[in-house]
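Dear support,

I submitted the protein below through the web form. The confirmation email said the job was done, but the results page showed an empty box. After a refresh the structure appeared. I'm attaching both so you can tell me whether what I see now is the final result or a partial one.
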Amino acid sequence: MNQSGFALAWSFLSPIAALIFLTKRQSFYWIVVFIFMLIFSIVFEPKLLGYVVQVSNQTRKLFYIMNISAPAFLTFLVARYFVNEQKKQNNQNQILNSITKAKNDEIIGSIEYAKRLQESILPTRQRRLKLFPESFVFNRPKDIVSGDFFWMEEMDDIVYVAVADCTGHGVPGAMVSIICMNALERAIKEFKLIQTGEILDKVSDLVVQTFIRSKKNVKDGMDISLLSINKKSRQIQWSGANNPLIYFIDNKLHTLNPNRQAIGFNVDRKIFTSHSIEYKDNTTFYLFTDGYLDQFGGVKDKKYTIKQFRLKLTQSVEKSPRSQKAALNRAFEDWKGKNEQVDDICILGLKI
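What the results page shows now:
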């Protein structure tokens, strides 16, 4: 086959492309044109039929132009097809993005409202400062709402203070925190319990009773540090579930270790221990969750650890509550660097 015959064979791709990429009406017109071009080629290039007829140069140029135009038109069709497909995809993406943004705005709005509800049941700044004028709270959720919380309640002459870390963080953690706060309230108001260990035992019972109603075997709970201060009898008690207590008497550091079990379901459950602490003026207590200690960062990208936390508290214990909070925040930011915050954080410092 000579050059013009090769071009003719190549041009058969043109009607195929028309059928694939064009509408039925457009394909019909293009195939009619192609058939006309094919007949014209056979008439003026009879070598395909086994004999040779001399044609003018002008006719041959016209033939070549038609054969060149076929692949050119094919290229145009393919390009237009993909351009149109890209436009359709972009339009679909815009629609999906609009829907996603609307849904996200709705979800964030709901979470923001949940945050306001959660904050409304936490002790207010005024109430905290009334009970403990020299105190601070470093509360930093990982998400908008938190599974960590601090709690204060006054019954008769006793002030109860707690910092807790509920299972999970974000919305699930916040929902568990409401259940756990309610259990704390019931333990001291409804069941009239005074000993911190007994309070945690009852709270654990109430949390288990709440979740046992579900058929989905929910085993959520919390770690907690619970302190009771009787300013009249000058007695202090503390109990902990997985979270320790750090306190300073005469600027000397002391640590009380918790029971190694969480509030909630435990296979081998034991009663919680009530620790008595010497009541001495100007004693500073720190109740905290593990979010600060578990933060990855530093040069070697490791956890902050309780050892560094004790050192930081020792360095700032004599400062004002505001300065202590600022120092903790700076240390956390310096340690975290560009890493993501790994967990909710709640630290409560108070001086008696």
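Response: this is the final, complete result; the empty box was a page-load delay. The chain has two domains: 3-96, 122-351.
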